[in-house]
């Protein structure tokens, strides 16, 4: 009997983390052939290869090398290439992750030719029309099996009529990964020494959302705010390539020697920094949750978040980007604070639960 072929379509940094956990769980099924399909959306060594190496994930079986360009060009080229690949390789199941252009292309190509489709991280909503929201709403409405993360994301799906046995809530694969890698990071990483920082006495920041990077006013408030904050506490800012382009265009140069703007950092080192930071300041969906997984307070400089339970429970604070001084003060005031003791993201076995359903999908029938 031939093996069940499961294709995981990934392309961007957070998707490598999520797929690594599903990949690991699928290894326990000898009758399954799991193939990673890399669209090529992220391609720099420290935005892509480093995750495969550090998370022990098999190299992509297929790499389409389609990155860069506008939304339409990127998604369209990926869609065309993925449809061709699916028709040639005949996967039994396609799995997509999160909410990037690679997610939408992977999902749309599969749905149109009726390949059973699963979405890991279904049901997240920001209730605006940011690019990721468009990708996730469209993906959820053509998906066969939805792996929701939280009670909130399950309720969002229900509100849109997506209910019943099409929805499972296994928890968050990123939580599984954080639990697994915490010890590895403590043992292997020298990031604190490299950056010359002490536990609890520095700020870790990441920024890459278009709403922040592409708006020079917001980006300037952020950079000036972090520069002021660095006068009190060292700030480490690994710059996403998108952000690097915009910071360079702004002509911003930090005044404080304690404001360390560096290249993107590998997963093991970022986990070490996350666990030791006094406060994490970010617009990343993944980093917001990782702050909570490692029990570090977080400030999110967005007007809304998909992860509302972290704001409600006091672990995360939404911050306006209007005034550098007010922003710096808010970030400093969160150091040492804690939220309540509730857990929201499952038991660290989301990957195993997802794998157990994926292997059954070829035998399932879907109402379409
Ligand atoms: C993408 C996702 C976003 C996700 C983020 C994770 C979409 C619409 N956005 O945003 O949801 O949170 O990834 O990091 O899919 N670049 C490089 N090297 C790389 C990757 C990107 O130089 O390895 C540069 C390119 O100039 C590219 C730009 O960054 O045009 C933006 O990359 P893109 O993948 O389009 O969007 P992200 O901002 O990374
Ligand atoms: N990350 C990393 N190095 C960095 C910044 C982030 O390894 O320099 C990791 C981070 O720990 C998380 C993932 O990348 O696991 C999140 O990706 P990103 O913030 O780019 O995307 P989002 O989660 O917002 O979609």
From TrEMBL:
The keyword Isomerase applies. One of its GO terms (molecular function) is UDP-N-acetylglucosamine 2-epimerase activity. InterPro entries: UDP_GlcNAc_Epimerase_2_dom, WecB-like. CDD domains: GTB_UDP-GlcNAc_2-Epimerase. Keywords: Isomerase. It comes from the Bacteria. Residues 24-358 form the UDP-N-acetylglucosamine 2-epimerase domain. It is an enzyme of class 5 (isomerase). Gene3D superfamilies: Glycogen Phosphorylase B (3.40.50.2000). Pfam families: Epimerase_2. Its EC number is 5.1.3.14. SUPFAM superfamilies: UDP-Glycosyltransferase/glycogen phosphorylase (SSF53756). Belongs to the UDP-N-acetylglucosamine 2-epimerase family. This is UDP-N-acetylglucosamine 2-epimerase (Non-hydrolyzing). It comes from Lautropia dentalis.
């Amino acid at each position: 009997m031939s093996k069940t072929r499961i294709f995981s379509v990934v392309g961007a940094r957070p998707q490598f983390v999520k797929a690594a956990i599903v990949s690991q769980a699928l290894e326990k099924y000898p009758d399954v052939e799991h193939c990673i399909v890399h669209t090529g959306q992220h391609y720099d060594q420290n935005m892509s290869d480093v995750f495969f190496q550090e998370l022990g994930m098999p190299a992509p079986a297929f790499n389409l090398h389609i990155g860069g360009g506008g939304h339409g060009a990127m998604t369209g080229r990926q869609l065309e290439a993925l449809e061709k690949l699916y028709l040639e390789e005949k996967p039994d199941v396609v799995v997509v992750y999160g909410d990037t252009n690679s997610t939408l292309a992977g999902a749309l190509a599969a749905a149109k030719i009726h390949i059973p489709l699963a979405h890991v991280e279904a049901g997240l909503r920001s209730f605006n029309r940011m690019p990721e929201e468009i990708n996730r709403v469209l993906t959820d409405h053509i998906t066969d099996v939805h792996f929701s993360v939280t009670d909130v994301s399950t309720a969002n799906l229900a509100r849109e009529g997506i209910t019943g046995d099409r929805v499972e809530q296994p928890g968050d694969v990123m939580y599984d990964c954080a639990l697994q890698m915490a010890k590895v990071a403590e043992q292997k990483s020298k990031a604190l020494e490299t950056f010359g920082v002490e536990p609890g006495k520095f700020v870790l920041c990441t920024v890459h959302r278009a709403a922040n990077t592409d708006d020079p006013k917001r980006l300037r408030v952020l950079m000036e705010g972090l520069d002021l904050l660095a006068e009190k506490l060292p700030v480490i800012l690994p710059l996403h390539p998108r952000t690097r382009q915009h910071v360079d265009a702004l002509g911003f140069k930090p005044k404080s020697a304690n404001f360390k703007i560096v290249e993107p950092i590998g997963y093991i080192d970022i986990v070490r920094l996350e666990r030791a930071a006094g406060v994490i300041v970010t617009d990343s969906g993944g980093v917001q949750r990782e702050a909570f997984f490692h029990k570090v307070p977080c400030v999110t400089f967005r007007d809304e978040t998909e992860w509302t339970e972290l704001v409600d429970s006091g672990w995360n604070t939404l911050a306006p980007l209007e005034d550098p001084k007010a922003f710096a003060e808010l970030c400093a005031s969160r150091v040492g604070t804690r939220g309540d003791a509730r857990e929201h993201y499952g038991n660290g076995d989301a990957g195993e639960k997802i794998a157990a359903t994926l292997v059954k999908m070829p035998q399932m029938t879907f109402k379409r």
